[in-house]
């Protein structure tokens, strides 16, 4: 009975990691310059992370992440609970840290039992964000530095961010060059701001997307600031739940958002 209670508590806490719901706005952004880089005006845009990067809080020994010098220690820091996963082409593995996951070098993991997949997915996406932060540099140029999740922010995001559950619909959208932005495939109905800078967006197909900015920095080494954006997806009145992380940038002040990659495992 005790084991079942601990397991249930673990699932609740890891779900909190996924939506970034714990933390306060005053402590929402952290980070520092990883090296001395400045543009011609002397401006440096440092690598930063927000409360949506929940990994430091969900360790066996939680840490308060204040400096980039602490990031590497998170690789092998033990989660407060372990997961078992089926690994394609390999024996089942026990995962209790990001280091365990990185050592597998394998996509397509599934939790055992499968109903814990949503919680495991949240942790692994945080691990991928950690990996990105470790490789990031301060930016020489930024068109995202003051970005905020406004009421209409989602509308001009890349079409891949839209919540599309049907595989046939995804193929149809991918084949249509006119479908480039979120609002070219769904329409915004309403929004609800969160308490720590995130925001929930509701579309006309019943989709519900809680967006949060996980981190900002130069993640692809081109000198321009990018951001890792998390979307916690669900359908109104349904049981569907998922989480996705995207690397997004802007190349000019008035230009659109560009998708650099979706984080997959």
Model description:
The structure is a single chain. This protein is an alpha+beta fold. The protein folds into two domains: 2-135, no CATH class; 153-263, no CATH class. It has four helices and eleven strands, in the order αββββαβααββββββ. It has helices at 2-19, 98-104, 117-135, 167-174, and strands spanning 29-30, 48-50, 83-86, 93-95, 110-112, 188-193, 199-203, 207-217, 226-235, 241-250, 257-263. α1 (2-19) packs across α3 (117-135).
Helix share, percent: 10-25%
Structural class: alpha+beta
Oligomer: single chain
- Through-space gap between termini: 33 Å
Shape: globular
Low-confidence stretches: 1-6, 11-29, 31-40
Order of helices and strands: HEEEEHEHHEEEEEE
Q: Kindly report the average pLDDT value.
A: 86
Give the helices and strands, then pairings.
Elements: H1 2-19, E1 29-30, E2 48-50, E3 83-86, E4 93-95, H2 98-104, E5 110-112, H3 117-135, H4 167-174, E6 188-193, E7 199-203, E8 207-217, E9 226-235, E10 241-250, E11 257-263
Antiparallel strand pairs: 1-2, 2-8, 3-4, 3-5, 6-7, 7-8, 8-9, 9-10, 10-11
Helix pairs in contact: 1-3
Q: What structural keywords apply?
A:
single chain, 265 residues, alpha+beta, 2 domains, eight-stranded antiparallel beta sheet, three-stranded antiparallel beta sheet, 11 strands, 20% helix, 24% strand, globular, disordered N terminus
């Amino acid at each position: 009975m005790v084991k079942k209670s601990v397991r249930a508590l673990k699932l609740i806490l890891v779900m909190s990691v996924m939506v970034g719901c714990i933390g306060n706005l005053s402590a929402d952004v952290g980070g520092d310059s990883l090296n001395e880089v400045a543009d011609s005006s002397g401006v440096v845009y440092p690598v930063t992370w927000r409360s949506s990067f929940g990994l430091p809080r969900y360790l066996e020994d939680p840490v308060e992440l204040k400096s980039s010098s602490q990031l590497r220690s998170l690789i092998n820091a033990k989660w407060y609970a372990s997961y078992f996963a089926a690994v394609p082409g390999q024996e089942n593995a026990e995962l209790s840290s990001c280091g365990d996951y990185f050592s597998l070098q394998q996509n397509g993991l599934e939790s055992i039992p499968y109903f814990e997949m949503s919680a495991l997915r949240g942790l692994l996406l945080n691990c991928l964000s950690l990996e990105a932060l470790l490789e990031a540099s301060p930016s020489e140029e930024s068109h995202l530095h003051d970005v905020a999740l406004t009421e209409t922010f989602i509308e001009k995001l890349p079409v891949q961010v839209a919540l599309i559950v049907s595989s046939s619909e995804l193929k149809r959208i991918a084949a249509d060059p006119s479908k480039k932005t979120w609002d070219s495939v769904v329409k915004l109905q309403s929004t609800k701001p969160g308490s720590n800078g995130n925001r929930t967006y509701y579309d006309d197909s019943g989709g519900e997307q809680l967006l949060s900015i996980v981190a900002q920095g130069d993640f692809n080494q081109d000198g321009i600031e990018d951001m890792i954006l998390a979307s916690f997806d669900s359908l109104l009145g349904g049981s569907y739940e998922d989480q996705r992380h995207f690397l997004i940038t802007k190349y000019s002040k008035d230009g659109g958002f560009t998708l650099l990659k979706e984080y997959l495992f």
